[in-house]
Amino acid sequence: MPRGGPRATPAWVYSQLLRLQPSAREASLCVAYSGGEDSTALLDLLAQQPQARPRLRAVHIDHGLQPDSAAWVRLCRATCRRLQVPFATRRLALPARRGQSLEAVARGGRYAALAAVLRPGEILLSAHHLEDQLETVLLQLLRGAGLPGLAAMPAVSPLGAGVLVRPLLEVPRAALQAWVRARGLACIADPSNTNEALDRNYLRHRVLPPIVQRWSSAARSVARSARHVGAAQELLAGLARADVARAADGPDLSVAALRALPLPRRRNALRFWIGQSGIAGADRKAGHEMPDARRLEEIAVTLLAARVGANPTVCWGQLRVQRHAGRLILARLRAPVCGYELTWNPRRSPRLTLPQDAGWLELVDSGAALIDASLLPRQLTVRTRRGGERLRPRSGGPSRTLKSLLQSERIPLTERQSLPLLFAGDHLVAAGDLWVDARWQSGAATAKRLRVVWRRSS
User: What contacts 234, CB < 8 A, 6 or more positions away?
Assistant: First the structure.
């Protein structure tokens, strides 16, 4: 063990856990138990601590990628039986994701499965150690990560209904190996850990040994740097939280408020907004990526600089950010909507729920709105596009096909398919909340003005 490193003892691990998460004194504890040396050491260390053992259980995630995975489950179960620790296992069915490594898919599936099994308030414990932190920082650096990536693995983070705690980040791998040997514990030797086609394994076996030979304290020094970066990231997160709160328009962000921010703060606020949303936040451990630098720049610059009335969109993965009505809206991409036709009496039913999770429509009073309420019949028809629809966006202007309007404003194809059209008889009144035909638009003498609200489903 490196000089000055903490001793891997039951008392030290438990005290570290309480320091990181004081609720661990009473909360249920769950070890993410792979059966490898690191997680076996963590499980045994906690099982030897009388204050922790009665509240301890282990969960093993079987990725189903190795022919011996069933035998590994049996070994883990036998170890838990010997330690008198409750044991559960979950088997993954990993989908093939185009353009994404199997390693990333497995990691995402593992975290999603662990989040799903956590009970409210339960603490999940992982056995990530000092060298894991070193590898993570270097991998993130080589991938061009920003501060969140270079801060590496946090000691405490929310996960599912509970919280994830890494109590061994200051402990070197050698200390855990020494504990396993001294206790005579049986461990799994995963052959994939020697596969140098995987980036982390190549770094571990080929790159780090000469670095550590030259700089023996490299792991501790890099871990210290990661903590400094994490502290800086906390300051940026606090600034972003304040900027997002000022720009918030419900779940959306005001374009005008974002434009008032200097570009670096704007990027920082947008990254925070996307990462903390209920839509993106839940997906990150499941392999979902935040927007890369190019797409973030499109949102921060191009989207915000678009002319008034344009509704540009930036898409990545399963998410999109759209500028609409002076706001930025974050939503999940939806499956294509099949055609539908509905009858709607807005006076009787102010809000119309659209089929196939396409959101809802509402006509609301608004002094600056475009529709003259006195011109509308009691009953409207709401349907999707069939082709050939036309409208005149401006009084005295040319009539244009809806298709050309949608193309010129670069409305995404998925939104074009779900766009609800409002008809009075055979006459098109409005295309969602994008355009109103001049025939129905309000004038100086209009007594009551209405605005179409189409709330797209997330």
Answer: none
